[in-house]
């Protein structure tokens, strides 16, 4: 497993396992299978409703805690300094852990203008040793810049929707210039049409790989952290089997050209759901 180094020197697996939209009944077997396959990074969130099951799978796995990288997130209704501190303790209790490796703000919800105070709570959790690293999800450049201007600790990670049809190049450049790691959710476009794209399929056939494996490999070679999700055992294995081939410069360029700024999820500047 290749790892990336966050700006605070913490090592993070570049390929992780996401549990967004994984129902409670499926979470324990899915995470168990992921850990058996070799994943060591698990990405959950309070709003997913499966933190308890993630924790259960971790305990049953027998994998040492220091070999794991666990991420969770504070939801929009719990933003604000004190609310965030309480929400974190609730998440920690559900996970059954002493600390988490990465704690993120799920959305900036700019209409409510609480993300700076929320982030300051994350800074306090970091100072208290309850989290190893802190960051954000779905933050645009202007949201990130405000944190850089008004807070002490710069985000280690910005987790955003990213796939070949939404390459996020401008945001990637900003994050790279500021030492912020970009992490891709919905890396396969939620199983969308990018998997049927002729360019992707041709490259997959050349390598004897699936379109999903090619796209995950594209993310990895773009220095992006990627967290594909599946509850199907064979696909959990398939998504992990991406370290035995490499895309050429020309193949990377061909996939880069597919970008058309097409989202499956909401725009961060407009997502104010609570």
From TrEMBL:
Record carries keyword Ribosomal protein: no
Matches recorded under InterPro entries: AKR, Aldo/ket_reductase_CS, NAD(P)_OxRdtase_dom_sf, NADP_OxRdtase_dom
Pfam families the UniProt entry points to: Aldo_ket_red (PF00248)
Domain NADP-dependent oxidoreductase intervals: 15-259
GO molecular function: oxidoreductase activity, acting on the CH-OH group of donors, NAD or NADP as acceptor
Site (Lowers pKa of active site Tyr): 73
Keyword Transmembrane helix: no
PROSITE patterns, A to Z: ALDOKETO_REDUCTASE_1, ALDOKETO_REDUCTASE_2, ALDOKETO_REDUCTASE_3
UniProt cross-references to Gene3D superfamilies, sorted A to Z: NADP-dependent oxidoreductase domain
Keywords tagged on the record: NADP, Oxidoreductase
Catalytic residues (positions): 48
Positions with a binding annotation for substrate: 106
PANTHER family in alphabetical order: 2,5-DIKETO-D-GLUCONIC ACID REDUCTASE, NADP-DEPENDENT OXIDOREDUCTASE DOMAIN-CONTAINING PROTEIN
Family classification: Belongs to the aldo/keto reductase family.
Name of the featured protein: Oxidoreductase/MSMEI_2347
């Amino acid at each position: 497993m290749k790892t990336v180094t966050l700006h605070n020197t913490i090592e993070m697996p570049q390929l992780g396992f996401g549990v967004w939209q994984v129902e409670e009944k499926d979470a324990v077997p899915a995470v168990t299978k992921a850990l058996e396959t070799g994943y060591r990074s698990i990405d959950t969130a309070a709003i997913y409703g499966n933190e308890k099951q993630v924790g259960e799978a971790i305990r049953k796995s027998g994998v040492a805690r220091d070999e794991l990288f666990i991420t969770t997130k504070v939801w929009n209704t719990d933003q604000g300094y004190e609310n965030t501190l309480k929400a974190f303790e609730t998440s920690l209790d559900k996970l059954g852990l002493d600390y988490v490796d990465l704690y993120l703000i799920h959305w900036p919800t700019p209409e409510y203008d609480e993300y700076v105070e929320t982030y300051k709570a994350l800074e306090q959790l970091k100072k208290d040793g309850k989290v190893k690293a802190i960051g954000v999800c779905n933050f645009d450049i202007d949201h990130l810049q405000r944190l850089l201007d008004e807070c002490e600790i710069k985000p280690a990670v910005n987790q955003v929707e990213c796939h070949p049809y939404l390459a996020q190049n401008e945001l990637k450049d900003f994050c790279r210039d500021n030492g912020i790691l970009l992490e891709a959710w919905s890396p396969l476009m939620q199983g969308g049409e990018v998997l049927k794209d002729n360019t992707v399929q041709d490259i997959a056939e050349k390598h004897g790989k699936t379109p999903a494996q090619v796209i995950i490999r594209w993310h990895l070679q773009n220095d992006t952290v990627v967290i594909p999700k599946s509850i199907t055992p064979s696909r959990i294995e398939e998504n992990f089997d991406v370290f035995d081939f490499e895309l050429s410069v020309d193949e990377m360029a061909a996939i880069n050209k597919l970008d058309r700024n097409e989202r499956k999820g909401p725009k961060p500047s407009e997502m104010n759901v609570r």
